[in-house]
């Protein structure tokens, strides 16, 4: 959850207005590209690379400006795209990260209206106590403290008005911008990959705006998670609907607040191990992951328990995907840490659909493998020994960010769950790095 902004919420729902924002942005992107190409003609190769990075940063600002004006699910799209290290150039992702700080609150009247529409009565009648001032916010809703008639302290998450009506138009905007970017940058993936990304985003967003699905997810994880020190709140279904969800209020601190208490290394290691174990337990035992890596979705409790409080973005994992991805980890370690041949990794890349059958082992060795080195070393870093100290974790380099990147042209596709998995895994690595935890990285201990 993010801190609330002082301004009030305003969502342009008119199709004409949203289409105008999209069209103007696309036109500006096109004009900037024409100017960039003209200037680049007279530059040296080194100057062109610098100019390209500056150009993509400007494009990122334009895209973020458009998505910010649209608000709603467009902001959620910004957040998701900012975490796709393998899809967008780094300079554009950096601009889209700003979406995490553009979440304004809705006023009391709109809060009351949403609750009445969803639950049939105003908050004052439903709850013994209800704080109209939200204490936390996400990209599509905000959270209020309340007390039920039987004196239970609860969190009530209320969705911003008009969110559901904007998904298709927001994704069309992103599709249009993807198409434009593919013309102005050599760093965009092929059309079939872009379409897969958009389809996956659409499916996840439709799930995430339906709080009845989130309530079911919460209840499912609560019932099926059997891992020591992991705490998941109960859902109060009688106070929940499609756009309002109420769940047990857990105590504890969010990561930044907890770190501000100066926990010792033993505490950091303890919670780091819980985060790591919960992720891989979910992969192998539950075959479903909480695919939103935001640190605000975890509570660090004084008794040593870890609260997990947001299950709006959940992704089921196919057994075939789990096995193929699991095989990739030792193959990455062997190839890039033990300097073994690429045969095994090459076959796994085929199984994961990253490359097509038309790519030869020789092409993989000569053109793709060298460009994978920075990311592969980062990825395999924690898994090439029994324990790892995340105080020494290197930052994620993402994919090659150069006009000469040939790997992107070979990206043939992927499993649909790959995007959510990568985002969740990257989020895990970032959380462990923030903690500075030293943990046992036996990721296979939960395999059947």
From TrEMBL:
Any Pfam family matching the protein: ABC1
GO molecular function: ATP binding; kinase activity
Residue ranges of domain ABC1 atypical kinase-like in the record: 102-334
Taxonomy, superkingdom: Bacteria
Keywords recorded for this protein, A-Z: ATP-binding, Kinase, Nucleotide-binding, Transferase
InterPro entries on file: ABC1_dom (IPR004147), ADCK3_dom (IPR034646), Atypical_kinase_ADCK (IPR051409), Kinase-like_dom_sf (IPR011009)
PANTHER family: COENZYME Q8, PTHR43851
Assigned protein family: Belongs to the protein kinase superfamily. ADCK protein kinase family.
Protein name listed in UniProt: AarF/ABC1/UbiB kinase family protein
Species the sequence originates in: Aliikangiella coralliicola
